[in-house]
């Protein structure tokens, strides 16, 4: 374990998702009422990744902004059940972040995100030491998270960031996250040529770039080369794609960073063989996540090992 007893610190972006399962692939918005199934779950990128690491047996801390409301109570209860420690917290006067996600029968989503006051709140004071002493720090994109990047760079063995769905690689909002990270994850949904985009990101400072390609698999690029991995052949349904990218990040970092000896703190020069193994674990974790509704019951270490053996 790292300093303060944590293998991984997840920074930012946890809240409550309301999943609205609609009966049609294209909802009829002209209708006043549609019969649906709804699920309230603790999720968003920080929620899925913190719970995912803890379910895999890693000592996991979360630092973030929550409100003084029922949604915060729900986040704390879910974290406690999975073993995530709320190690540093700041109050968001606007309340806990929420999302309403329309889910179609094939598992696709259309998310409507309400980040509340996350653009204005400061970083939790105790988080600076927390990120400096972790073996791994995974950042999400709430605006206040960038305040912790210098501390993480100075101390953390590996700094990772999930860039989410990028439309413009030159987006200034993400620039300091990219430059500060050893590993970046990004959705390939709007990247055009994912391999070209990955090379451009790699040139800006990271040691490894991982691109999620959905049902086309995943791509990882380092200075040692590139690996394009097809999706694993697993007998799992696609129920809910919420958290799929988070599962990819958790499984990849579980294998490529946390699963290595504690003193092996760098991902520089990661080999193509190592990236292939990590991509397999990441995609298996993502498929497990997609086979259930919401953020409960994410893969344990035994679950992930079994899936990797089946797919490998």
Key features of this structure:
312 residues; alpha/beta; 9-stranded mixed sheet; 4-stranded mixed sheet
Give an account of the 3D structure.
The protein contains 9 helices and 13 strands. It is 32% helix and 24% strand. With 312 residues, it is of the alpha/beta class. The radius of gyration is 18 Å and the shape is globular. The protein has a 9-stranded mixed sheet, sandwiched between helices. It has a 4-stranded mixed sheet with strand order 3-2-6-7. Helix 1 runs parallel beside helix 2.
The main sheet comes to: 9 strands, mixed
- Principal-axes geometry comes out as globular
Beta-strand residue percentage: 15-25%
Low-confidence stretches: none
**Helix and strand pattern:** EEEHEHEEEHEHEHEHEEEHHH
Overall structural class, as computed from helix and strand content, comes to alpha/beta
Helix proportion: 25-40%
Strand order of the largest sheet: 5-4-1-8-9-10-11-12-13
Number of helices: 9
**How widely separated are the two ends?**
29 Å
Radius of gyration, whole Å? 18 Å
- Overall average residue pLDDT: 92
Number of strands: 13
Give a quick rundown of the structure.
This protein is of the alpha/beta class.
Show the helix and strand layout:
Layout: E1 8-11, E2 15-21, E3 37-43, H1 44-55, E4 60-66, H2 70-82, E5 85-91, E6 98-103, E7 109-114, H3 127-132, E8 136-139, H4 149-155, E9 158-165, H5 172-180, E10 183-187, H6 194-202, E11 208-212, E12 218-222, E13 225-229, H7 244-258, H8 272-290, H9 301-311
Parallel strand pairs: 1-4, 1-8, 2-6, 4-5, 8-9, 9-10, 10-11
Antiparallel strand pairs: 2-3, 6-7, 11-12, 12-13
